[in-house]
Amino acid sequence: MIRAYKFLMRPTVGQTQALSEMLRDHCSLYNGALQERRDAYRHVSRTSIKYGMQSAQLKEIRAFDPERQGRWSFSSQQATLRRLDKAFAAFFRRAKSGDTPGYPRFRGVNWFDTVEFPKDGDGCRWDSTPHDPVTRVRLQGVGHVKVHQHRAVAGRVKTVSVKREGRKWFVVLTAEQDQPEPLPATGSAVGIDLGIANFLADSTGGFVPNPRHGRTDAAKLEAAQQALAKFPRVRRDKRTSNHQRAVEKVARLHGKVRRQRLDHAHKTAVTLVREHDFIAHENLTIRNMVKTVAPKPDPERAGAFLPNGAAAKTGLNRGIADAGWGVFLTILHAKAESAGREVIAVNPRNTSRTCPPCGHVAAENRPNQETFHCVACGHKAHADTVGAINVLRAGLVRREAQPA
């Protein structure tokens, strides 16, 4: 299996400048390759440029511009061109399926934050010596950069990536390792129902509170964004130091909320994985759930619109995004795979409207957000707990139906 590790880098002032130049030059290569593809399609009889054609030009590009392109790893530049090729492949796939295509866009230097080295030892070297207390990563054109390695890397390092987040620099490793030993069996199965009032409810009647990290720092973030909005939009080389500090403050607040959300997701997921052998959850289409409400034109007044509940839907969308269901489910599946646990996603349809004892399905069974009261048999319970019980039952049925 492949596992990723992320460590904080501690570059010197000179290394920080070199890292910034590396991102700038890879961004320039990305934009140049994108411009070539656009020009070839628009002006040369709709010619399509492929990755192989652009990769073959790298040798000439490096020889023509040795100061900006020739100093960096050849393999990392190929990875940047593959990144563009993947963007075009995704564009054509979305266009073919009828989704919004999203044509690849040019990247500003502040929006290009990652450089990948496809193979350890080719333009980079992860140097983690057991008897050396200081860990370093060697990067072509930058040098040996100190790394704060807070845990050991198991397995063989395959790829190395350098990532910038605000003023911090990180190295991201992917390592190939053997499948770890599964955790001891507990004999327990659980269903979970994700929500906003509570982050999740399980089929045993337990609840995990929703920390609402985004709402906690909303006032600070709003003030920082308002301060940033006061600065006029000018070119990057003409921006003042005050503008740069305002940008960094907004990024710092967003980063804090993101780290808090990740920490909560990791802790919740590891608790579920340790306590249960089988976990069932709803197969949520979060992208559709956070779509904006379509406007309702007023047929009696031209140019006017009827109330459509957009304000309430906006608050709901903000709550769903703040809860971070997608991140949590991704982490849950990854930890379950490492621990030898089984996780199944089930159809969420009517899970909160079906009575567990009698099976009666009706919208009237849920008179409000928290209460479940079956109109057929009179069963009363918390609506989220009922949903989790039905999710577990559906998961067990699906597991039994799967071929061995």
Which whole number gives the mean pLDDT? 91
Count of DSSP strands: 16
Globally, the shape reads globular
Number of helices: 11
**N-end to C-end Cα span:** 22 Å
Low-confidence stretches: none
Main structural class = alpha+beta
Radius of gyration: 26 Å
Tell me which oligomeric state these chains represent.
single chain
**How is the main sheet built?**
7 strands, antiparallel
The fraction of residues assigned to DSSP E strands is 15-25%
Strand order of the largest sheet: 2-6-7-1-5-4-3
In helices, the fraction of residues equals 40-55%
SSE topology string? EHHHHEEEEEEEEEHHHEHEEHHEEEH
Number of domains: 2
Can you give a write-up of this model?
This protein is an alpha+beta fold and 404 residues long. 42% of the residues lie in helices and 20% in strands. It is built from 11 helices and 16 strands. The protein has helices spanning 13-43, 51-56, 58-64, 74-97, 213-216, 218-229, 241-275, 286-289, 310-323, 325-339, 383-401, and strands at residues 2-10, 114-117, 124-127, 135-139, 143-148, 156-165, 168-176, 189-194, 198-202, 207-209, 278-282, 296-297, 305-306, 342-346, 371-373, 380-382. Helix 1 (13-43) packs across helix 4 and helix 6 (218-229) packs antiparallel against helix 7.
Secondary structure layout:
Layout: E1 2-10, H1 13-43, H2 51-56, H3 58-64, H4 74-97, E2 114-117, E3 124-127, E4 135-139, E5 143-148, E6 156-165, E7 168-176, E8 189-194, E9 198-202, E10 207-209, H5 213-216, H6 218-229, H7 241-275, E11 278-282, H8 286-289, E12 296-297, E13 305-306, H9 310-323, H10 325-339, E14 342-346, E15 371-373, E16 380-382, H11 383-401
Parallel strand pairs: 8-11, 11-14
Antiparallel strand pairs: 1-5, 1-7, 2-6, 3-4, 4-5, 6-7, 8-9, 9-10, 12-13, 15-16
